[in-house]
Every structure is written in structure tokens, then in C-alpha cells.
């Protein structure tokens, strides 16, 4: 452990301010700090004593215990605060000076401009020395592609060529090797030190200047972020210092700054989190723990389990298993439908978030142990996590169903579907699927979602003439074509009426309204949320366009307008969830018949909003939207599978191809004549048929 720097007794004011920062951010502690300063002033007047320089420990309790050490400041003038500021700056600079020689500038030249459809960086970036013989860790920000050449500005002023040895895709890091004739300086490590929320932290970079480090001071604001893989800081973290170290006041490395992926869907957004006032650093101990693997040329990937849980909301619990993604480590571990996951790694699992946090730090190829409760007995299971899980394609039987006492009553069977080929008929009631009870269409959909394509599924059905019958059939993958419109399961009621409701959106100034059929108060409704072109919405025209669909099919159709008449903002994507939530409070909304649609510029907003609401919607539709920058990254998975319909110019075909590679059902509808500002130009019959087919099983 490095020796703490020595200061005179005035250093204790800095330590007290540091202690307050550990409780919270300094700006939130101003009232506390003023009260404490007043108290210390009284102490200093009352005692006026001194003590030799004690070693500060940096906690509020320690500061209180050593109040006598502050008493020497009683005779100080009003310049004490200025002196405190100078001492503070001196402490920061001492820490920076200690670590600066271990930070290097890396220049990249050439290489691809895009990787997987995303723009990649070119030019200077920052690295941190992790090996005296030329090992340097950096961020993946500049190394997603293979640059034509890499040069590193070494601490002695020379430049050396470097090569990429391996990448840690889970933590957004890259390991480089340079050949140097001299030993490189190694940074001091905070390994073994207790890193706590509120302590000072300094982010360093060398992107701008190879001879000087940029520095940003903040605090550690959270631990265990990005599913247990990152430390969070409010120090400025951006492409300026990606790959540089986050250090403490002793100049020791706490972590390596990295643009931990936020899972965005449009080009260029993966590093934009630095605009939100928080940044991430990979704990240095995690980097060093994987250093030998990286030095051996092994790429590291996030480990994937593939378990499918009943609830998808992270704050839901308990974590009940409904199955496993076909071909996944979970499927091979022996986990069964109905199992309750109660522990994972070394932590208890009560919420889905606990399971995801337990999985986060574990790499592909490593063992993952978890405990399930099955029939009152606890069982320990183990799976070797995988780099990738076989691409999941949405399953399809080709029928629709309603709730029936004790099962799911078939209301429609599609021609040429697996259901038709197996002889299933309207009116039959499915009571079991693969020996599991089926009490509703939702449960049948869940069982079909995890079925193997090449393993027959056995359905137990009640027919008109038999109390029970077993039907065996193979599921298929979801068809790409728009279904032909079927008849409603119930006769259309000519007395159905509609009303237009204004939807309050809280702190958002946007206007929103919903066209609601009178049937919505009696039965579950479908829901379509529309984000139109920016500007005012012609409400009578909008509701008139959708009125027959709302009446005949029992769908609620809602919209919200932009706050700015010329453009949408990214924050407004939250309005999709806000609108769904408002309507859920008043009506029973069927998630299997809930969709988001975007017209023109509202198309990208619809895609972003849909990504945030995957557990509440079944489909996304864009009409005449620009899709050239579409970069949806999340692979398809059971129970969070979206269906896509893209109508517009030739870009819709390429966009659908990208999504199909991830396993999603995506249907292109070439229609270059579409005008998003004119509802009458929309292919309404095809749109309606696509919406009606969302809840097929």
C-alpha cells in the first residue's frame, strides 16, 4: 500500500469535506458542511489546542474523533476557505502527477468506418499501462474495427507501433501490446482498498495531448452498475478519456473508463451516455483478473444462460421459470418449467434483477451455479455460460384463442398452418401443452414460445364430441407475410360507440389523446400508440381514420404530438410508456395486441420507445420512416419477441433483413408513395390485418 501524503493540520478541513462527499455529492452537503464548520469554529475558539499530524482515514467519524486536530485553525483568518481550496487542488494534482506517467495516448489510422452497422471511432484515444513489458489496456471505442495501424506515445516521448491482442466485449475493453526497449512505468493499484460511494475520484485521459493528461474530478456515485461490471462516477467520462484510469486521492487506479453499452438501437448512440452526467469504469481488479487470458489472445464475451422467466420486469419476483431458450446452457442444465430460482452465484434471488446482476460479471465459458426450488425441494444446478445462444425465432402454431374455463378456446385456425395440418378446429379447448396445464391463451403462448422446432408438441384438447383428445404437431417459425384478415371471434356489434379521451402526461407538455371503443370497459382491448410527424395532430381526421377499426376490433388507438413543431426529442420516446401506463390504469390492455406505430420522423421515436417497453408490446410498425441507421442489437428471445412491419422506400427491405438475422419476424411493405402527413396514403387494410395477426399463437 502506498504511503499517504503528509500535510499540516489544515489538511483536516480537506478531509472533512472529503468525508461529506462520501455521504453524498458536495453540493447536497452544503447545509451540513456549514453547520460542521460552525461547530469546528466554536471548538477552535474553546480549545485552541494542537496535535501532531495524524494519519487521516477519510470517514466522518474519524473527523469527529480528531476534532482537536482542527482546533489550530481557530486563529486562522477568513482566508481559510481559500487555503482549503488550494490544499484541495494540491491533493488532486498530487494524485494526478502520481498516475500521469502510466497514461498513454494511442493513435489509430485507417480501418473500417462501420462495424455491425455502427459508426466507429478513428484518431487518438487513451490507454493505461498494465504491464511493464508493453501491455496497455484501452477502451473498445477505437478498436471495434481493425485499424490499419496503431501508434502509442510512450512516457519517454517516443512512439511505438502496437497491435491488438484481445478484446473484452463484455466490459468494452481492448488489450494492446507495444514493443519497447525500456520498462514501462506501472500504476499503483487500489486493489484491496475499500472503494466506497462518495469518495473522491479523478478521471484521466490523454486524447487531446500526448504530453499532458486531461482530468475531471468527481466522486464514486454507485457501485455494481451495468449488472455488476462497473463503478459509476459523476466525473466527466467521454471519448476524451475512454481507456484512461479512474484514480483515488492517493493516485491509485480504481478502474478503467469505458463506454459500457446502453443497448441503443440507432447508429452513434452507444457512447452518448456521457451526456447524461454519469460515467462508468471497469473495476481494476476485474481487469487484472482477466489479464492473463487477454494476453494469451483470448477474447472475452458476456456469458449467457438462456433461462426464460414468467415475468420480464427486472423488479418482478419471485423468479419463476417457464422454460429455457432452445439450445441454451439453461436448457442443458436441467432446469424445468415451474422451477423457482432462489439463489445464483453467492446471492439470494428474490427479483429478476438479482439474477441478472449475478450473471453480469460471469464470462462465457465460465461455470454458473444457481439453486432452484422444485416441489418444495432445493436443487443445485450448474451451466457453462455461452458466448452466444442459438438465434431464437418466434414460434407459430397458426391459431387464435380466447379464455375458456379450464383452458384456451380456439377461435380461429389459419389456412396451411401447423394447427390446420394437425386438424385443430374452432371451438376446441386446449387444456394441456407438453404435459403442462393450460388455463389461458397466454399460458399456451408461453409453452409454444419455448418449444423445440424438431420435437413434436402434444396438446390435450376438449372437442365437441370427446372429453379429451391428444393432438401431436410440430411448431413452425412465424411467417413473414401479412396475414389475410379473419373474422372477429364475436359478431360485430353495431351499437358500439367511441369516445375521445385527453391523456394527461405529467411533466411533459405534449398533447395526447385516445380513441376508446365502448367495449373497452367490458373486455380486454388491443392498443395502438401512434407517434406521428412533428407538429399538431388533426384530431378529427385521426380519429375518423381509425374509428371503424376501433369499433369492429375492440382496439384503443392513441397518439401524442411533439412538443416542438419541427422535431422530436429523444426524451419524448418515454411518452410511449407513459401513454400505455395511463390507459392501463383505466382499461384492461392485452399485451399480445399492443403495438407502436411511427409516421415519418416519428418512426425512429417509435423504435426507441418500443425498445423501452418490450414487456408490454407485441409489435412495432413504421410508415415512411428513415431506417438507414437502424442498428437494433438485442437478439430475439422468448416472451420478449416483437413483430415488425416496415412500410416505405427500398430501405425497408434491408432493415427487415437485419432484424431477421436476430431472429425477429420482420415484414417489409415497399410503398415509396407513402406520405406520412396524409393518412389516406397509408395501406390501411394491410396495416389492420398485420395488427389483427399480432396475437396469433
Concise description?
The chain is built from 16 helices and 36 strands.
Overview of the structural elements:
This protein is α+β, with helices and mostly antiparallel strands. It has five domains: 9-77, no CATH class; 79-300, Thrombin, subunit H; 312-384, Pdz3 Domain (Roll); 395-477, Pdz3 Domain (Roll), CATH 2.30.42.10; 498-695, Alpha/Beta hydrolase fold, catalytic domain (Rossmann fold), CATH 3.40.50.1820. Helix 14 (602-612) links the parallel strand 33 (589-599) and strand 34. Helix 13 packs across helix 14 (602-612). It is globular and about 85 Å long.
Quickly list its features.
eight-stranded mixed beta sheet; six-stranded antiparallel beta barrel; Pdz3 Domain; globular; alpha+beta; 22% helix; Thrombin, subunit H; disordered N terminus; 697 residues; 5 domains; 16 helices
Q: Helices, strands, pairings?
A:
Elements: H1 11-23, H2 30-47, H3 60-65, H4 80-100, E1 103-109, E2 114-115, E3 118-119, E4 123-131, E5 135-139, E6 149-153, E7 159-168, E8 173-178, E9 200-205, E10 214-224, H5 225-228, E11 230-233, E12 245-247, E13 253-257, E14 279-283, H6 284-289, H7 291-295, E15 307-309, E16 319-324, H8 329-333, E17 340-344, E18 347-348, H9 352-359, E19 367-374, E20 377-384, E21 395-396, E22 399-404, E23 407-413, H10 418-421, E24 429-433, E25 436-437, H11 441-449, E26 457-462, E27 469-473, E28 476-477, E29 498-502, E30 512-517, E31 525-531, H12 539-553, E32 555-560, H13 574-584, E33 589-599, H14 602-612, E34 619-623, E35 643-648, H15 651-661, E36 666-670, H16 684-692
Parallel strand pairs: 31-32, 31-33, 33-34, 34-35, 35-36
Antiparallel strand pairs: 1-4, 1-6, 2-3, 4-5, 5-8, 6-7, 7-8, 9-10, 9-12, 10-11, 11-14, 12-13, 13-14, 15-16, 16-17, 17-18, 17-19, 19-20, 21-28, 22-23, 23-24, 24-25, 24-26, 26-27, 29-30, 30-32
